[in-house]
Amino acid sequence: YESFLSFSSFLSQRKEQTLTLDSKFSLLSAVAKEDMVVIEQEPEPEEKESPSSPSSSSVQNESFRVPEGSEDGGGSDEDSFEDALTQDQLNERSLNQANDAKADGNRLFGAGQYSDALLQYELALQIASEVPSSEEVRSMCHANRAVCFFKLGRYDDAIRESSKALELNPSYVKALLRRGEAHEKLEHYEEAISDMKKIIEIDPSSDQARRTIMRLEPLAAE
């Protein structure tokens, strides 16, 4: 019987110890749960390009961008050469247009339409006025206008246009001849003789100039 009581007492003590341990474990678990902090992982924010910062592709393109001017950054000679070519092409086009207008004037002159021919020669002069190498075509247009004015009986205008042609080409024999003839029409015999003598200086074989001098000298002496 005493053994049974001792065994019962032993079981009772074990039960109390177990309950004590369970209580302590429960208490620790509760404390642990209260102290535990759950950290939720936030989603990473989407990358947004800054308005002021270029994208990687634009940065790459920027790094390979060739500076204005030339590939080595100092091609002023090449730029000038290209500009010169462009200007030459523009000059050539203007000169061709001026020659076309002059050709139209020649056709009108051949048809006896002197007033219309004057307009075409004037158009050619306007087109060629800005072309540096247009002295020849401009002098021819002024000389042709002088002929038109001469045909229309406008001798003062013929003299003026002939003089403009001679300013561009002082050895232009036809302009000298036309101006001399206009002076003769206005009875400016001395001026006409002077122009004929200039023609002979340029072209000693000009029989027309010699005959005109012989004819006008008596009239100038009166």
From TrEMBL:
SUPFAM superfamilies membership: TPR-like
Protein's name according to its UniProt entry: Uncharacterized protein
Assigned keywords, A-Z: TPR repeat
Region feature (Disordered): 37-84
Acidic residues biased stretches: 69-82
SMART domains assigned to the protein according to its UniProt record, in alphabetical order: TPR (SM00028)
TPR repeats: 139-172, 173-206
Species of provenance: Amblyomma maculatum (Gulf Coast tick)
